[in-house]
Predict the structure.
Amino acid sequence: MNRRISNNIATSVFILCAVVMIATLVYLLGYILTNGFAEIDWSFLSSNSSSFQEGGGIKNQLWNSFYILMMTMLFSVPLGVLGGIYLAEYSKPGKITNVIRTSVEVLSSLPSIVVGMFGLLVFVQYMGLGYSIIAGALALTVFNLPVIVRVTEDSIRSIPLKQKNASLALGITHWHTVKTVLVPAAFPGILTGVILSAGRVFGEAAALLFTAGLSTPNLNFTNWNPFESTSPLNPFRSAETLSVHIWKVNSQGIMPDVLEIANGSAAVLIIFVLIFNLSARIIGGVIFAKISGKK
Amino acid sequence: MQASDLGKEKKEANSVSPLMDIKNLSVFYGDKEAVKNVSMPIEGNKVTAFIGPSGCGKSTLLRTINRMNDQIDSAHYKGEIMYDGVNLLDKKIDVVSLRKEIGMVFQEPNPFPKPIITNLTHALKFYRTKKSEIQGIVETALKQAALWDEVKNRLNSSAQSLSGGQQQRLCIARALALKPQVLLLDEPTSALDPISSAKVEDLIIELKQHYTIAIVTHNMEQAARISDYTTFMYNGELIEYGETSQLFTNPKEQRTEEYLTGKFS
Amino acid sequence: MSNSNYSSTSSSTHRLIKNKNGSVKRNELRGKVVVYSCAVLIIIATIAITLFLTIKGLQSFIVNGVNVGEFLTGLTWSPSGEGDVAYGAFPFIFGSFSVTFLAALFAAPLGIGSAIFMTEIAKTWGQKVLQPVIEILVGIPSVVYGLIGLTVIVPLIREHSSGIGFSLLAGMIVVGVMILPTVTSISADALKSIPQDIKDASYGLGATRWQTIYKVILPAAMPSLATAVVLGMARAFGEALAVQMVIGNSKALPESITDQAATLTSIITLSMGHTTYGSLHNNLLWSLGLILLVMSYVFIIIIRFISSRRKV
């Protein structure tokens, strides 16, 4: 009898844990979306932010977030995929492989504020890039690289060995086998991981405070020459992203509608993160169905 | 080399040198000796079968010939495999060219999950075969593998839509497209149903006119049906090598006889 | 019989012997060069980060002559004050460790409990519902957690305590919720990897589910569960913005859990932009950053230690 009772109590406790977890998510999303949706309208998305008046928008921040995201991916995906290929295919057990594994582990466990400090020291100061999109993207590359490396390694390792053998036994070089057999087969896994990591990069703020900066110059959205200072494409200008904006208005904002702006921005941020998350799931699911459907 | 001199010493057959000569070959995985001091010829344009209980080293031996074992970090070799004047185990051997010339088909059909045609052109494109030649090579290879009639109208559909037996013949065609000298078949029918197996067996008999074939099989009847020479291996050692008709009807070694009569497996 | 239709080239080289200039060889080499250089780049990046931050973090001790002991144990932080300059970082070190441990105290039972629910109690339901919930929670940016902490948790604490709401407690709750999904998903992986036959043996002896979990599953998974919690703590220790938004950033040692406090990260976040590069104050911030760097190595060593015990 006693055994039964303790068993039931324990089961209820575990169920409670799961309920707390789900409730937390529902509450978080519900809170952000209900509070934020009221603030989102076209003018919020399409107007410039204001530093002390009411009614500022997030146009530049939104643009900056996507621009930095794109540039980060441009750097981190090729590097990370090649690093993952090294670990999955070229590494032999030994010292060098250990050093690389440890490096990836160190990079992935560095607090993002530390990555930001490194960016400040090396990209902003020593390389003289100043607070800029490119410095921010380089810092986020450090932050994102280990994720892509791991996703690539796992995806390649999950491909059946018989595929690799098939190609090698035809007298095809290891590298060509990697390029034409392994990477295409691992592509769905890598793509899913890359999209998920994009959501993480999109929401990251701490690494950007000291690298991309806290402000955006006046942008002229009719000027697409990347070498001009007011061009949205200029990678050497400072850029406040959406996440940084949320932090900034809360800790330094003096406009009367701080809370509204923060809530609206958070809702937009969350919506994009959810879109990244969902599309990763859908793409993963579609490709999985394709493979198991044998067609 | 019409081997009609039944039951003669191997040495004598060597007077016309075989296509490939395995000399004192030992293969190790770490400390474990998987193949122990094996010496035997592989005759040109013949089918040589390797039989023996699982784990006897027959697959390892086969995978040593085209150096697929190099992928396993702990694998190393002793001895020689002489082929066309070179030792295939030499460090200077270019394993990529070697594998192109000595093709291999695996136990489980492993077509690339791509269109049928791409399976054949994968290696041809890597070797920069002229576009004008590719079409002809593909057709010849598929015909040689007795698959042409079944797939000629759907070369662009996925190889995974084929049946297991068709997939295996596609894998054979894929190897043939490279015009190899030798084909290594590692239990090519063990994953197939009896009808598909029979087709692959017929194919092997056809192919020996143009190719030298070494086949590992766990199926003794299959070895008896299709091979000219048979090697019986046990526990990494070569117990007996001889002409198939002789080895099956009149084995010299007691262990061979015991294996053939099903006393152990 | 070896009807070599490959004409052995005029030179002495055999077609099967490696040829350094062959296109095949070049193809292989090109791939190796690209892949190896990326691997080397990853090593260089890691060494560069460690080296640059260490050198920069030691400046205050070497150039400004700050006493290491005083820096680590001193209670007063006033590095740019006009009168007496004090650089005691202990309140921040204390704050970081408090937030980390309190958050772990909150997230470990809840996370492991949820993981047990997912893997032992409701497997299909857990996979279908809890797995996506965890993934979405992991993906929520830390500034959003901070914002909710600021607008929900802080007022809540203000109402129920004497303080102003910004507090160690608020930081702990926010960070605890943030690391919860991390702890849960790694714990769930650990529990899933326990072989079914161990569990079956226990059920076969007539043990209840709770007895099986308590006596068999938890002990077997313990090192991996510990790894999950340590990874969560590592994340908590390095979290910056969410903590900074709710903890109050007081430079004094907190007297109670509802008191304002500060962490290493929150002070860096707050002050880095307001100090002159190369000044004592600025150099001290880099020293705080060095503590963060050292701690992330310490966490890696702890995780390595735990997993090495798992193999034995």
